[in-house]
Design a protein that fits this description.
Helix content is 49%, strand content 0%.
Length: 119
Amino acid sequence: MMLKRKIWKVLCLALCMILVFSSVALAAQTVIVAKDVKGFMAEKQINAWIAKGFLTIGADGTFKPFTGMTKADLVKIVNKAFGFTAKDAINYKDVKIKDAYYNDMLIAKKAGYLVANAD
């Protein structure tokens, strides 16, 4: 009986230590934020989307919120937000295979939310 109680205490202590140290490790992770959106009206959302990988920041750590958003940017965000990954086999007239956003456009077409001129 005493042995069972000691085993339980050791197991509970080990579990508590695992929980404590794993939460410390998670808290130590660096949160990436864009340095040029501080005080911007959409600061919280932009930084949340950067953290989720929906948006990216430049090598200089800036997002440049006033440069506008392209169709390719929007498609990338929608694909990631909804987890779309299946691609359509259609070739676009206005998007070249070598374009960085080509695959995102094929995914958007397959998902059915983008209609574009195709060959």
